Amino acid sequence: MNGQATTSVEGFNLKNSSGKADGNWRKYHDNGQLRFEGQFKDGIEYGLFRYYDQEGGLKSTLNYLKEGKAMATHYHKNGNIMATGLLVDRKKDSIWNTYSPSGDILEKGAYISGKKYGNWITYFENGQVSEEMFFENDMEEGPFKVYYPDGSLRQEANYVNGFLEGLATFYDAQGNKILKGKYYRGSRNGRWIYYKERLEVEKVLEYDKGNLLNPMENEDLMEDDTDQYKNNRKDFLEFEDLKKRISYD
């Protein structure tokens, strides 16, 4: 059109003479519900973008601070905030907070270019710390602690390159040591000692890289829930529109 921007219905989804998105844009789900709305200048997002689910509920907002950087807010179905944090080139960066549907803080931690780094903390609904651990390059590294809802220590261990490694100690709700042993690359290894009151030894289990060597002593074995904590951790911050760059064509 002789260098003029191409327009669509109601003046949305404009492109400039260079073929780049310009002005207000809207896209829709296959069912006709609005998928997102926002604005561009010469192909670059700016200002506030809103994303919606297929039922029309607000799913996320991205508030662009400058090219490539945006403050993201994700929402639960009930409208309460699910997570907030910074995106840099569509990857999580800096501190992110995750919340329950009722608004309680669930998790707090930092990213660098989409990978977890530093101290990560998860919380019980009562606000007490549930778990503390460290990440380096998206991999568990360093001290790992689990707590009871009253704040007392339940378990302490250590990660190396994403694997439980070295001494792990477990406590009951009164602070008494009830179990200790060592890990090798995420598997029990060597002597695991179970305690009764006053640190009296109840039983000793022998492992070789995860294989129990004295199974006759395995009655009423206390379940090792370290991997349960790890496997139950969920990254609440992902959604499909942020996993790949959206096409605006």
Describe this structure in words.
By secondary structure, this protein is mainly beta. The protein folds into 2 domains: 7-113, Outer Surface Protein A, domain 3 (Alpha-Beta Complex), CATH 3.90.930; 137-233, no CATH class. It contains 2 helices and 18 strands. Strand 3 and strand 4 (58-66) form a beta hairpin. The radius of gyration is 25 Å and the shape is elongated.
Class of secondary structure makeup: mainly beta
Rg for CA atoms: 25 Å
- Give the strand tally: 18
What separation lies between the terminal Cα atoms?
18 Å
The largest β sheet comes out as:
18 strands, antiparallel
Overall pLDDT score: 87
> Can you identify the CATH class of the largest domain?
Alpha Beta
- Describe the global form: elongated
Number of helices: 2
Core attributes:
Outer Surface Protein A, domain 3; disordered N terminus; 18 strands; disordered C terminus; 249 residues; mainly beta; elongated; 53% strand; 4% helix; 2 helices
Describe the structure in brief:
This protein has 249 residues and is mostly beta strands.
Topology:
Elements: E1 23-28, E2 34-41, E3 44-52, E4 58-66, E5 69-75, E6 81-88, E7 91-99, E8 105-112, E9 115-123, E10 129-136, E11 139-147, E12 153-160, E13 163-164, E14 166-171, E15 177-184, E16 187-195, E17 201-208, E18 211-212, H1 226-232, H2 240-243
Antiparallel strand pairs: 1-2, 2-3, 3-4, 4-5, 5-6, 6-7, 7-8, 8-9, 9-10, 10-11, 11-12, 12-13, 12-14, 14-15, 15-16, 16-17, 17-18
